[in-house]
Design a protein that fits this description.
The chain folds into 4 domains: 86 residues, no CATH class; 97 residues, no CATH class; 88 residues, Elongation Factor Tu (Ef-tu), domain 3 (Beta Barrel), CATH 2.40.30; 222 residues, no CATH class. Helices cover 9% and strands 33% of the residues.
Amino acid sequence: MKSVCLSLFFFVLFGVWGTSQGEPSILYIATNGNDTWSGSLPNPNAMRTDGPLATLTAARDKIRKQEMKDVVISVRDGDYFLTEPLVLTSQDTASKILIHSWNNEPVRLIAGREVKGFTLVRDSGILKRLNQEARKNVLQSDLKAQGITDFGEIKSRGFGRPTHPAALEVFFQDRPMTLAQWPNKGWVKIDQVPAGPSGGKFTYKENRPDDWVHAEDIWVHGFWTQDWADSYERIKSIDTATKTIETVSPHGVYGYTPDHRFYFLNVLEELDKPGEWYLDRKTGILYFWPPAPISRNRVFVSIVDSVFAIENCSDITVQGFTIECTRGTAISVKNCQDVRIENCTIRNIGNVGVSISGGRNNGVSGCDIYETGDGGIRLSGGDTANLIPAGNYAENNHIHHYSRWCMTYRPAVGVGGVGQRVSHNLIHDGPHNAIQLGGNDHIIEFNDIHDVCTESDDVGAFYSGRSWVDRGTVIRYNFFHHIHSVAEQYRHGSRVVYLDDAASGFTIHGNVFYKAGSLCAINIGGGRDNVITNNVFIDCKHGVLMDARGVRWAKQHISTGGGWRMYEKLKAVKHDQPPYSTRYPKLATILEEAPAEPRGNVVGRNLAVRTNLLNTPDGYCNLVKFADNFSTDQDPGFVNEAKMDLRLKQDSSAFNEMSSFEPIPFDKIGLQRN
């Protein structure tokens, strides 16, 4: 019976790889293992002469040395503190490898260190810099005494800036703590810009910085000129007499503008509430105000950039781990085939949860990804010149509370290249885009997206822009709801599907938009050939807003030689020759028919409930094919709108008014059982 069960176990594990010759080899890893042992036993033997390995790296090296095929690396329960990522390369392509938690035991792969030895602060100089309440609660620990000497470096990051690994961070109760900042919530405002927008100086009104006379290496984070572009800047000097701040180059993105928002961080004097911390980089002393008793909880700091780096490999599955405390991207997959990241919890990450670039049929499925610095998942790949899809995917993942460092253009899922798929994900609580997309022929389907775009302006839950070439993407059967930016007191507001700056050739079909978008649900930003059919809009200001920016305010950007490089992109792909001319016939003739005008857009067979379906503020409504839509202020026959069951009953008025309206598979949207 044991043999039958074991064979069934292997069949299930390796079924995705096809038929295998014989049973796979198994290597065990355990916290009580030893890298000099064989790894063939799940526990040490009685004499402790053999047993499991101790590290993933040792397992990889054994597979390479022994030229093993079809290998299962089974990791036993416990916490594994990594000193380096597991790197898999072309040397490992001869093997099909499953790396998983054995028998679903809880396994944490921690790219950091646990910090101990906390005591109350006794240094009078430090105590004087803290407020009265903090003096009784802030603890300290000597990191250098525990062998932690690499603190990383705080670097300028944000909109248009390179992505750098985060510096050392602190995690407590399995969530990130806050680098001491002021104000603790909200923002302060720039007062004046005495040296002009690009002069690297601005003033403030508050008196708080008067108390920071001993502070060094202070940083500011702000939306300096545009409320869709944030960045972190290092302070060069603070003149408290004139209330003037000078920053280190490159200065705030787009320069500094009065009345725009920012806050200070990395200030010891502002360690004034539970959950805040500060690191003295000279002494190596970590100061921390724990939000719960430290004797009953653990403190971790991030050390290693990543956990898995997989390149030029095939047939590798990573399954069932909690992966945390990285400074950079937790898992990177480059130029691989059939690499799968499954059923993992990926949290407390300095950059991105999983990055997949190049290759084909690689994916992330069934994962919980949260508390990331710069977004959740990145997908790219495929042959752009020949429109050959990569087939990489993000499926059935729960992504939330992402982009806690950089708040703009760091989406839950970023998509590029040709032929990626984003399906059945639940995405919420993000400051900017949920899905940001470039490239061709992607599928965005069955996702549940809400409470995103919370900190930014001129923003869309789904975003793409500045290309006539990036066509063929289908956005279908998604549920977008409760999307309203807290920044809506600013200029532009939020959209849901934002086809910005002449984005063209999208199909938007069968989606449900409910109380979503302060400006509109779908914004055609001057683009062409976008087909919007069979959608349901409920309590939206506008269902579709179509402007003509290409012949109005953006004329200089869209024209030949303009900043959006629209004509250069056409030339780069030879748009009037196969495969582009055959795949996108309207693209082949675009230069023959006023390309800057929003032509070829279709709005048909849509249901609008308490929503103005179409708004064309710049005119050109005659260019839209608008037909067979139904608008009503009454319940058209939802199963239960109060409980957000927005399926339509069989006798819905929508089916009577639009004979070809198709039922939306609302019950299939969102996360599915693994």
